[in-house]
Amino acid sequence: QKVTVEVLDHLERLALVDFRDSEGVERLQKAIQFADQLHEVNTDGVEPMDSVLEDRCLYLREDDVTEGNCTKELLKNAREKVEEYFVAPPGNIPLPKLEERETFLQGS
Amino acid sequence: MAAAARGFGGVWCWVWQRGGGWCPAPAPRRQRAVSCNARGGAVLAGKSGLAPWVPVVGLEIHAQISSNSKLFSGSQVQFAAPPNSLVSFFDASLPGTLPVLNRRCVEAAVMTGLALNCSINKKSLFDRKHYFYADLPFPGQTILLMKFPFTEGKLRVDANVSVHHPGEPYGVRTEVKNINSIRFLAKAVDYEIQRQIEELENGGTILNETRAFDSKLGCTVPMRDKEGKQDYRFMPEPNLPPLILYDAKSLPANMNHQQVVNIDWIHERLPDLPSVKRAKLVEQYGILPEHSFTLLNEDGLTEFFENVVKQTQMKPKKVIGWILNDLLSYLKQHSLTVKESPVSPFLLADLLNLLEKKEISSTAAKQVLAELWKGEGKAPLEIVKEKELELIQDQKELEQICQAVIDGQENEVMAIKAGNQKVLNKLIGLVQRETQGRSNPVLVKQLLEKKLSE
Hints:
Chain A: It comes from Haliaeetus albicilla (White-tailed sea-eagle). The complex is a heterodimer. By secondary structure, chain A is mainly alpha-helical.
């Protein structure tokens, strides 16, 4: 079962990954096949484990204010700041549609 | 929670939207016929000859818990605090920090679930949801609590809408955001149902998308999708064990009680729910159910009402009229809360007592109330004296005035004696005028009737 061009485009768009060439796609296929081996395990009647911490007790904190108010410290790590804001790069720019961008998948 | 929607609007016309682009807006023209199906849900007629439509609406209600500190950290919660002033190291996602759950939030959630008559899940799991924004150097994360009932506090609602033909599976749904009031909720839902029906009847498809409600234009528009498609990569939250809630039966023997949330303990401490409060008010005071709604919906109004009732001989059924019609409308007109009322329960009770003792008429009472609103601290009796509003108590004086009116209205008297009782009201009115409203209409009527029958 091959991975379709639609799915590959979807992955490139979501993960901002560039499959580059057929070898990249082949590697992906192999990775999926590898993971598919999980299906060979019979899990009938086995309760899924939600968390390795399932037999630990979840600690509940009292509703007191005990931290925060450390703006200066937090901003010490900021490369760029304006007043008390972190300055970040511009917002998300979605990838152009498949037909309009340069990708190995174009030829497929 | 899905509820059948009621929407019908007409055909939509196109309106130029601020910022460019055409946006459909409602034009009041033909309305779709709506009928109810066997389950009581609304069914909308299709374009002539086409199959009818069933809309399905789900409301996603977000409410902020009222707490001192945050859900997963000990940072303060405060509206409009300066930027980054409340952020702790965990909130800033610095490496090595871990979430710690706030007990008060858990209790609030349980309380709300109980108040809404939900069944409370004993075990809840946390999932992690990832957001990828270019302006965050690493994927943002949200920890979600799954299978857990609602919380109390600040409120927000998103509406999920789809349509389908009866008997067929549900259609593709859209999510509508930016709805800021119940009225807008109704408009947004109505619009979206219509939009989807028109789209489908014209051969189009509905995208599973998020739309924003534009309150000015009364329509929904696709939200500018800043990330394109989203893959949230849901996974079990590795840093939080499951949350277990207990009740009296399942309570472990030797556990630190600070670490235990006991559903039954919380249930016992729930205050009277509104439905119970309303029923009590109706039973205790003999007021109408709709009165009880208003009393409860206005902060402090029930207390005000009960305080007045305590201090006056007037029956609660009569008092409620003064509370809901006079007091409340004045407060609303001046945008005041009950607590800010210039007229206290004591003053109002004082006034109502004068009325009850028939020392003033109801019209006079309203005049006094108007004076009291000025908040000059005068007592009702003072105002009555100042404005000479007391009812004439001297029976002889009243009789004289009645006689004078009768003497002056020969035609009317003849009409009454001939059997036209309605004309009597005119005479009563004339007496009222003579006495400048200071006569008790019931008494005047009796006197006039007595004189006319002589």
